[in-house]
Amino acid sequence: MGKINKILSIIIISMIIGAIASGCGTNPAMTKNNQEAVSASSQIKENAKVSYLGPEGTYTEEATQYFFQNGAAFIPETTVQKAIEAVVSGNADYAVIPQENTLGGAVTNYVDALIAQNNVFVVGEVILPISQTLMGIPGATVDDIRLVCSHVQGIKQTEKWRKEHLPNAQTQEMDSTAAAASYVAETGDKTIAAIAAPGAAKLYDLSVLAENVQITDANKTRFYVLSTAKLNEEKHTRAAFVATCEASKIDDIIVEIHNAGLELVTIHDRPEGSRLGSYHYIIEVENQNGITESQIKEIEKNTEIRFLGSFDAIEKHS
């Protein structure tokens, strides 16, 4: 039986690699239109206080505004850690954090911040199209630029374009794309540009120098909506878990998930921190017919797995 499981796990892992290689595309069956985005779940609190990675003008703010269209108060924080801490302390009802990008992959330090919290749950997910925009001081041109500032993801996602159009420009990482835009506006230096969301140009009085400078128009980022209160089991289409184990055991865990009747969406590994070869795995699964409480409990029988919440996902279309 063990041999059969190993063979099955190899087949499943091959399917996973193919799915991950295709980026973070979305099953049309789980995509909801703009009207349905008003409330991704009947259990999401109205008029909530929502912390997010600020400042104003970040993609995270855009995702937050799209998910919470019911009179929420938005609280920009300087880091994802502070956004999560606001929820833990009770200063916010929800936090919104980036989780994965089509081009840049998992946003690892943000994933680490989620793993570190034992009493924070995923209650929603937003998939946002990303249109990276190069912006600078009014009057500047692309030829003027010698330094490009952005979040590390913005820098990764535009590498190909910059090599072609700005081969001699240096890069500087910032806490967020909006922070990069703010910095350029403050310096007033025509040789410095930011890569940020299109709305940041208007917000910080910058000129758009080039649009859609990411590697592909299929660029998307997934954001998690977090809360200290997990949603009731009501057949949500997705669920997330953290598995903490040696790498040699992950194929068996994947088999357990498959045997429970769930399909893998993503899996990301992070070092566990106490010994070599041991990792935290963020695992997201789905069932378009709805994930049942019995399926979750079946997976939780494995003591190396911690349930992170069940939820629905919505996608904004450009």
Distinctive features:
alpha/beta; D-Maltodextrin-Binding Protein, domain 2; 2 domains; five-stranded mixed sheet; 10 helices; globular; disordered N terminus
Under CATH, the topology of the largest domain can be stated as D-Maltodextrin-Binding Protein, domain 2
Largest sheet: 7 strands, mixed
Radius of gyration: 20 Å
- The topology string of helices and strands comes to HEHEHEEHEEEHHEHEHEEEHEEHEE
- Count of DSSP-assigned helices: 10
- Low-confidence segments: 1-39
Helix content estimate: 25-40%
> What does the overall shape look like?
globular
Q: Number of domains in the coordinates?
A: 2
Assembly type of the chains comes to: single chain
Distance between the termini: 49 Å
The CATH class assignment of the largest domain is Alpha Beta
Question: How much of the residues is beta strand, in percent?
Answer: 25-35%
Q: CATH homologous superfamily of the largest domain - what is it? A: Periplasmic binding protein-like II
Q: How many β strands by DSSP?
A: 16
Tell me, rounded to a whole number, the average pLDDT: 84
Task: Describe the model.
This protein is an alpha/beta fold and 318 residues long. It folds into two domains: 224 residues, 3-Layer(aba) Sandwich (D-Maltodextrin-Binding Protein, domain 2), CATH 3.40.190.10; 78 residues, Periplasmic binding protein-like II (D-Maltodextrin-Binding Protein, domain 2, 3-Layer(aba) Sandwich). Helices cover 30% and strands 31% of the residues. It contains ten helices and 16 strands. Strands 1, 2, 3, 4, 5, 11 and 16 form a seven-stranded mixed sheet that branches. A five-stranded mixed sheet has the order 8-7-9-6-10. It has a four-stranded antiparallel sheet with strand order 13-14-12-15, with helices on both faces. The protein starts with a helix and ends with a strand. The N terminus is likely disordered.
